[in-house]
Design a protein that fits this description.
alpha+beta, Nuclear Transport Factor 2, Chain: A, Penicillin-binding protein 2a (Domain 2), Ribosomal Protein L30, Chain: A, 4 domains, 5-stranded mixed sheet, 5-stranded antiparallel sheet, 23 strands
Length: 658
């Protein structure tokens, strides 16, 4: 009996709690609001009354919300005010406040959630008497919602002289019209062949559900520079046509592709990340380069209005509206005469080049070779051509000036400055190591030796070692400096930290994550081998230290940034001046590796370097003329030694000094 009594009491309590859970709609209100805020429209539909479900199908209900909420509303919040006491009737009114950020601005409204006790279900529960007014207050079930966009102009990008690098111009819309085909199959084949597109892509465009016999069916876009070829195709193929439209144009094509980048229609992943910023399925967004980096500045703010349209097609109410704001232009310090000259000199071979004004820090050129046509990428490159670019062993899609590479013997200038400043390198003391190979006495290096290219046949001091590019001298210098001092000195130059620059650059690294793993690695680092990696822009900037008595000048890319700003002072004026003189000796000495750059009227300073990375070779020359032009160049070409880069450097000084 005792057990039975306990069970009965428990049963009574359970029944009482169950009854309480259905006496008020509080839980149902919370569930509906949660589904609403989570955009779970199917679950919302399950909570509306059976009468509502008879008037609108789940498919139409979900589609109505998706078209309006997912298409026009970036973010929203709902606050339901649940009363302290309910009426106790079978219908309860719950006030809600809805605040939303739409593609046309902010909007807020108040409405009532009308919950009724629905006993027609297998399990009676509180259900919502839903109507379209819960989307917008004056929206009836027969009305529609329309968005009228007001397009903003994207900001443009210009070089130092005001030449357009990314501008709003004209592009060619490519199209076919079904009822103009005379022999559809053969015409599609010819269009595909001459446009570099697949027949399948054209057929897919024609098979869209909305296409009718007289429809203009877009199949792609091309830059206006291809107009002659497109007009010829129009004359030859009856079913093909074209029209001109507004689009993004990159006048200098491959010469600025990696620097400027390109825009494309937003991807699904990008839209998910940027929807709250006002992006829609129709948005164009920067994909690479400055188009991506400066997206916020260039994009501007789209405008438009959201309106309710009644069944007669008349405007019923404006929900939200905002004016479009054009994007801001970007003005660069780039000089296209320098940019194009360097691009032409690399001639499609893998490599990179950076040109700075060593006095102001202005970036005159940022070149990566080989390259690609950003106009084609922006308008949609056919898959076969895209695949060809991706599989090209010369990697035309790789941005080399933002990457990092082994600097080879150009590092010797940095090692020398650190050594002189630390007191471990006396520039007047000589090293006399005969032959082409060396390792310390009583070392545990085994069969490993530091190898030099040229045997100087005698003792060398700092100037001779810099001129000959003597690996043995700088290996010994690094060992004398020591791990801690060399690391500290390199970090003073900006190694192992993000380099401040408008364009995102990879960090220069002195070692891998484990630091110096051996004495051999320390020695190799001194002459630019080991695991050291430098970014080309950073490498160029480090050489301004030797021009400015120990002050490293901040590189800038945009007009309006302060010029001639000192970024850091990594070494003393004495050490920097000494290295400057040694670099000039590399050119003036008949034994210097850059002697071919010598001129009667100008004092050129330079350091050559040939880095060996596995089976790959990187030829470097970093040079500057600081008396007249302030032109500083850092040029690297893959697959060759520095000797083959020197003619490019020589040509640049011939062009821009004389």
């Amino acid at each position: 009996m005792k057990k039975a009594a306990v069970f009965s009491t428990f049963s009574i309590i359970s029944i009482f709690l169950a009854a309480c859970s259905t006496e008020t709609p509080e839980d149902s209100v919370q569930s509906f609001v949660d589904h609403w805020e989570n955009r779970d429209y199917a679950s919302m539909y399950q909570m509306v009354t059976s009468d509502v479900q008879e008037s609108i199908s789940e498919e139409d209900f979900v589609a109505r919300y998706e078209n309006i909420y997912d298409g026009l509303i970036n973010d929203f919040t709902i606050e339901a005010t649940v009363p302290e006491e309910f009426t106790g009737e079978n219908e309860e009114q719950i006030p809600v406040n809805v605040s939303m950020t739409t593609v046309a601005g902010e909007y807020e409204f108040e409405e009532q959630l009308s919950f009724v006790w629905d006993e027609q279900e297998d399990e009676p529960n509180w259900k919502l008497e839903w109507g379209s007014q819960l989307i917008f207050p004056n929206l009836s079930d027969e009305d529609s919602v329309r968005y009228n966009p007001s397009k903003q102009k994207r900001g443009e990008i210009f070089d130092h002289e005001g030449q357009g690098l990314a501008i709003n111009g004209e592009v060619i819309d490519l199209a076919v019209v079904p009822n103009r085909f005379e022999e559809e199959e053969s015409e599609i084949a010819e269009i595909a062949d001459r446009l570099g597109r697949s027949e399948e892509s054209i057929e897919q465009a024609l098979s869209q559900s909305w296409v009718e016999e007289g429809s203009l069916v877009l199949i792609g876009q091309m830059p206006a520079s291809e107009l002659d070829a497109i007009e010829a195709l129009y004359e030859d193929v009856p079913g093909f046509t074209y029209q001109m439209s507004e689009g993004r144009v990159y006048p200098f094509g491959e010469a600025t592709a990696h620097l400027i980048g390109y825009i494309r229609p937003i991807t699904a992943e990008q839209l998910e990340e940027r929807r709250e910023e006002g992006y829609t399925e129709q948005s164009l967004v920067g994909q690479t380069g400055l188009e991506l980096i400066k997206e916020e500045q260039l994009r501007g703010t789209p405008g438009g209005e959201i309106v309710i349209i009644d069944p007669d097609g008349e405007r019923k109410e404006t929900i939200a509206e905002q004016e479009a704001e054009d994007g801001e232009n970007v003005y660069l310090t780039i000089r296209m005469d320098v940019q194009e000259e360097l691009m032409n000199e690399l001639d499609g071979e893998p490599g990179t080049a950076v040109a700075l004004d060593s006095e102001t820090g202005e970036t005159l050129a940022l070149v990566s070779s080989p390259s690609y046509d950003p106009n084609q990428m922006s308008l949609g490159l056919p898959s076969a051509q895209r695949e060809e670019l991706e599989e090209n062993e010369d990697q035309p899609l790789l941005n080399r000036f933002s990457n990092r590479f082994s600097p080879g013997s150009t590092m010797k200038a940095i090692t020398a400055a650190i050594g002189v400043d630390s007191g471990t390198l006396n520039p007047n003391e000589t090293v006399d190591e005969p032959g082409h190979e060396w390792q310390p006495e009583d070392s545990d290096w085994g069969g490993y030796h530091v190898r030099r290219v040229t045997d100087p046949n005698g003792a060398v001091d700092l100037f001779d070692a810099m001129a000959y590019s003597d690996n043995i001298y700088f290996a010994q210098a690094a060992l004398a400096i020591g791990e801690e001092e060399l690391l500290a000195g390199a970090e003073a130059f900006g190694f192992n930290e993000t380099f401040a620059f408008t364009y995102s650059l990879q960090q220069s690294l002195l070692t891998g994550e484990e630091g110096f793993k051996s004495e051999i690695q320390l020695a190799d680092t001194g002459y630019g081998q080991g695991e050291i990696l430098t970014n080309p822009v950073h490498l160029a900037a480090m050489f301004t230290t030797f021009i400015h008595e120990g002050q490293l000048i901040q590189p800038i890319l945009e007009q309006g940034e302060e010029t001639g700003q000192v970024m850091v002072e990594p070494v003393s004026a004495e050490a920097a001046t000494l290295v400057d003189e040694a670099l000039k000796y590399v050119v003036s000495s008949s034994n210097g590796t850059a002697h071919s750059l010598e001129r009667d009227d100008y004092a050129i300073a330079a350091k050559t370097g040939t880095a060996e990375v596995g089976e790959d070779t990187l030829g470097w020359v970093v040079s500057y003329e600081s008396d007249e032009s302030n032109l500083l160049l850092a040029i690297m070409q893959e697959g060759v030694g520095s000797g083959e880069v020197l003619p490019i450097v020589d040509h640049m000084y011939n062009t821009f000094l004389d």
